[in-house]
Amino acid sequence: MLDNWDALRETALGCTACKLCRGRQHVVFGVGCPTAQIMLIGEGPGQHEDEQGEPFVGRSGQLMDKMLRYIDLDRSRNVYIANIVKCRPPQNRDPEPEEIAACMGYLRNQVALIRPRIIVCVGRIAAMTLIQPDYKVTRQHGEWVLKNGVWMMGTFHPAALLRNPRNTPTGFSDFLVLREKIAELGLSI
Ligand code: URA
Ligand code: SF4
Known about the structure:
- By secondary structure, the chain is an alpha/beta fold.
- The chain has eight helices and six strands.
- A hairpin with a 2-residue loop joins strand 5 and strand 6.
- The two termini are 28 Å apart.
């Protein structure tokens, strides 16, 4: 565990701990405020994220930014956004269990340094990894669980909403649930 954000970032940027290092253009460490009270955690970089080195910058990211703005949050001001794996899986396949295991230390270290009050798991892979191995987004989205003192919920991945737009209003309503939790905890953001 590193106690220094820049050292952690530098270590991740040079990481070769799993085979995803081979095809990458950038290690996508994360974006946002390192003292944020809210973290959003996705699955892994896609093509645009790999090219630009920042999470959620493609079409999914634009929708995510819209959902954040809907409840007056902003990726650079009051949240921190990261992924379960920091390098792009080829053809955007799901990250494999060994890749997730190899990468989890970085996310754990990020969470330990940020000490968020709330973590939103964006999509199935993040929710299965961080909340419960058999997590079902369609059934459990928007439900809170308290884990190690952190309020956690899962929601639809914006890519899933783009594929299946009839779930979009439900996706937005999860962000209202997030806003309520922010108010309930009295977080000033
Ligand atoms: N999807 C994710 O899960 N993460 C990103 O950073 C981009 C798309
Ligand atoms: Fe290292 Fe994670 Fe990239 Fe694998 S995905 S090489 S563990 S930073």
